[in-house]
Amino acid sequence: MTELADKAKTLLELHKPGDPVILPTVWDAWSANLAVSAGFTALTVGSHPVSDSIGKPDNEGITFGELTTRIKQITAAVDVPISVDIESGYGEDPKTLIDGLIDAGAVGLNIEDTVHSEGGRLREAQEHADFVAALRAASDATDVHVVVNARTDLFLKQVGDESDRVDRAIARMKLCVEAGADVLYPVGFHDDATQKRLTDELPLPVNAIGHPTKNNKAALAALGVGRVSFGPLFQMVLAERAAEVLAPWK
């Protein structure tokens, strides 16, 4: 447990606004080894690429048990801090989620506010914060400070009027701060002004999604971002390159 506690501490300390930690999004032992061999010292596991890797759909098309089985394979293969996208929780209670992640060797999580098991509804702002608080309490009951990355899909789902969407996202994220989140993830590809406003007005490191070949670390760093992950885009880029390599052999 001490080793995991140390990894959790390391993961949290890597989040530096203006000097973001880059967490390549992986899905199995092979992709994790690929990223570590390239020099990355922490990783995140994405729900979409994991689901794709076992032939099932994203949006909780797999079970939490299927996810943790894959996490155990990854943590057995690489000795770096691992954060895991747990979607909206797979219908499991926070203690089960925290215990399952720690048992699998993970030290961080993403929790989103889209409830896939209930028709894709968006949790109310306080409802989502309450879930974050319950995850924090479950983590605090262990020896591992699981790094909680609270995500909102307001931008991704284009919820409500665009004119006040940033205001609502900031308000929603601030409730997650009060609930004990460590990182904030208003997911979406934002223009520079919006991204800068998010990093300026939110009191914790902000996670931005990055495209592996179309974005760059320096530009996101200049906007104050504290963490960058790729979602399913790294896997998609590799799939495109594979198609290019294989095409002449048809």
UniProtKB/TrEMBL annotation:
CDD domains: ICL_PEPM. GO terms for molecular function: lyase activity. Pfam families: PEP_mutase. The keyword Amino-acid biosynthesis does not apply. Coiled coil: none annotated. InterPro entries: ICL/PEPM, Pyrv/PenolPyrv_kinase-like_dom, Pyrv_kinase-like_dom_sf. Keywords: Lyase. Gene3D superfamilies: Phosphoenolpyruvate-binding domains. PANTHER family: CARBOXYPHOSPHONOENOLPYRUVATE PHOSPHONOMUTASE-LIKE PROTEIN (AFU_ORTHOLOGUE AFUA_5G07230) (PTHR42905:SF16), PHOSPHOENOLPYRUVATE CARBOXYLASE (PTHR42905). This is Putative lyase.
